[in-house]
Amino acid sequence: MSAHLANAMDSPTAPPQKPEVIIIGRPNVGKSTLFNRLVGKKLALVDDQPGVTRDRRMGDAEIAGMSFTVVDTAGWEDEDAETLPGRMRAQTEVSIEGADAAMFVIDARAGLTPLDEEIARWLRSEEIPVVLVANKAEGKAGESGVLESYSLGLGDPVALSAEHGEGVADLFGALWPIIGAKSEAAEAAAEFAASEDEEKPLGPLKLAIVGRPNAGKSTLINRLLGEDRLLTGPEAGITRDSIAVDWKWTDPRTGDVRDIHLVDTAGMRKKRNVTEKLEKLSVADARRAIDFAEVVVLLLDATQGLEHQDLKIADMVLQEGRALMVAINKWDVAEDASKLFNGVRAALDDGLAQVRGLPLFAVSAKTGKGLDAMLGAAFEIRESWSKRVPTAALNRWFDDALEANPPPAPGGRRVKLRYITQAGTRPPRFVIFGTRLESLPKSYERYLVNGIRSKLGFEAVPVRVVLKSPKNPYNANKGGGGNYSGGSERG
Fold it and tell me: Beta partners for 134?
């Protein structure tokens, strides 16, 4: 733990706040568009008419895991202090007090104006780090404006297009030396505070049991509940609706009482065998149960082993981003049990290579064998499925992974991988930013995915990794949207 963070945690004062970055520039250079881009929402009004923004607007921004507060300001105008534009300018001047950095935005297509030069002189006189942003720099039309901006004496400009999301990775590179440490300290303090919170329950475990007809799903749930809650029998397809039961399970290892929302589903046969309307509705209901589950148990029949339909069901669960476990039921009547278990293990690793090492259990709904171990593992896998890795730790792993196995250089031009951030949880989602990512071999993508799973504690859950490059303004298929386009997703 850094001394900066340790002092912040020991101090009785408020924890470190996120750094604040103010956007400054004359009217209609794209300040509000940049603001919206950074916060990921259209919070600020945008129009071709200058002077739309009149009051300061604040929002939570993030670039590649670096969080900060961004402030949109009114356009700087050279008017009398008593006029409306003059009062708006005074608001902007006041806004830099306490800010950690300023982004001075110019219009690269329009080139420098006397007002740009006046703002630059004022900023040079203030004690605030400035990042010069040459907006609207997409294509050749903005090149001259970018070059011209060097004359402002504010360092190298960041050429970007706030409208199309180009150059945001370069903006990260310019801001990180200024606010990166403070952003990390604020994030770490927030994570520390969350870990200190005594009660942060995830709520009842939403557990769905799925499988082919007659695998013993309803019998297994009755065994767990200790009562004949669900109708069972030798006939396949008795269960039609997805049946949900709220239940309390006592963990025999700790004695803790855990809440479980247990869902039994209809058996899922091969699609070509599902012809009756009622069975189609039942299967659709089972799919919806998977959508709302956190952990899904795929139940196999020990007398039939693993079949292709089981792998299709498992793949569907993983595509939905649910945490998956596999249980071989009817273990009490299994023949050559050791060979069966090893065969299923090998077939799962081969057929579901994206999640090698799925939890596999031998259970018996008739005798209760293995059920407590299965439920205990279900809670553990949900913890992994819900986990977030701190940005600093994530990028330390990323740097080590790149150093141990550098990206290849197809055609003699090396693929550049710059940053990684965790975009979400449940399932874990990661975004890797870089250039020339379209040339990155799938084998290297798998290397990164496998590293995330093995080194960061996501062994048994689906992981989503998205590769994102700056947009190519000459791409005929270009369009608006997020900060980056292109890339691929693996999980």
Answer: 106, 159
How many other CB atoms are there within 10 angstroms of residue 16's CB atom?
Answer: 22
Cβ neighbours around 229 below 10 Å, total: 16
Nearest residue to 133 (alpha-carbon basis) of 30, 19, 59:
30
Res. 276: pLDDT tops 80: no
Residue ranges at the known binding site = 25-32, 72-76, 135-138, 211-218, 264-268, 329-332
What's the pLDDT at 193?
62
Quick check: 100 pLDDT over 70?
Answer: yes
pLDDT of residue 88: 52
Q: Which of 193, 179, 188 is nearest to 63 (CA)?
A: 179
Query: Domains of the chain, with CATH numbers?
Result: 3-196 (3.40.50.300), 205-385 (3.40.50.300), 391-490 (3.30.300.20)
Measured CA to CA, the distance from residue 20 to residue 7 in angstroms comes to 21
Which residues does the annotation place in the binding site for GTP? 25-32, 72-76, 135-138, 211-218, 264-268, 329-332
Per-residue 3-state assignment (H helix, E strand, C coil) for 385-407: HCCCCCHHHHHHHHHHHHHHCCC
Percentage, residues of the chain above pLDDT 70: 77
**What length does the chain have?**
491
Burial class (CB in 10 A: 0-12, 13-18, 19+), 469: buried
To the nearest whole number, what is the mean pLDDT of the chain? 80
How is 253-265 classified by DSSP, letter by letter?
TT--EEEEEEEE-
Q: How confident is the model at residue 98 (pLDDT cuts 50, 70, 90)?
A: confident
